Amino acid sequence: MANGPVLYGPNFGTEVLAAFPEGIPITWTPYEIEWRERLSASENATLDEVIAAHDPTTPWVKPMTPAEQVMFDHENRLRTIEGQPPLTQDEFVGVLSSGT
Q1: How far is CA 14 from CA 56, 98, 100, in A?
Q2: Euclidean distance between CA atoms 77 and 85, whole angstroms
Q3: d(CA 72, CA 80)
Q4: Domain positions in the chain
Q5: Do 8 and 28 form a contact (C-beta atoms < 8 A)?
Q6: Cβ distance 16 to 27 under 8 Å?
Q7: SS3 helix, strand, coil % of the chain, rounded to 5?
Q8: 43: Cβ–Cβ under 8 A, 6 or more apart, which residues?
Q9: Rounded to an integer, what distance in angstroms lies between the CA atom of residue 94 and that of residue 100?
Q10: Which position among 2, 16, 50, 61 has the lowest Cβ density within 10 Å, counted as fewest Cβ atoms?
Q11: Of all residues in the chain, what percent carry a pLDDT higher than 70?
Q12: Cα–Cα distance measured from residue 50 to residue 87, given in angstroms and rounded to the nearest whole number
């Protein structure tokens, strides 16, 4: 149910997991977070930092798999040796998708 502007965009879960790799007992919708009362003061403070840094308008970016990260790093090392500028993640994903 829409309750106004979107507060928690598609990358919010990834950002929460980066701050809490072990996970935390909350749920959220694009409009609200539930179960914050289950968090310690320290966890709430960290979650507040995640929320403050979060931009709900940023499109979702699929995280690279470990294998893709290795290929991305390798490609950019080669490009550096060849005197070429490094690829961004978006450019690299485009190269992978095109098969070239």
Answers
A1: 12, 26, 29
A2: 10
A3: 12
A4: 12-53, 66-98
A5: yes
A6: no
A7: 50, 5, 45
A8: 20, 24
A9: 9
A10: 2
A11: 93
A12: 28
- Across the strands, what pairs with 100? none
Average pLDDT over residues 11-16: 92
Q: Is the pLDDT of residue 37 over 80?
A: yes
Scanning the chain, the segments in alpha helix (DSSP H) are 12-19, 41-53, 66-81, 89-98
Distance CA 46, CA 23 (A): 12
| Mean pLDDT value across the chain | 89
Q: Read off the pLDDT of residues 39-86 as tens digits, 9 standing for 90 and up.
A: 999 999 999 999 999 999 988 877 788 998 999 999 999 999 999 999
CA 65 to chain CA centroid, nearest Å: 13
User: What per-residue confidence (pLDDT) applies to 4?
Assistant: 78
Taking CA atoms, 15 is separated from 35, 73, 75, in Å, by: 18, 22, 26
Both tokens of 97, joined, read 């998708």
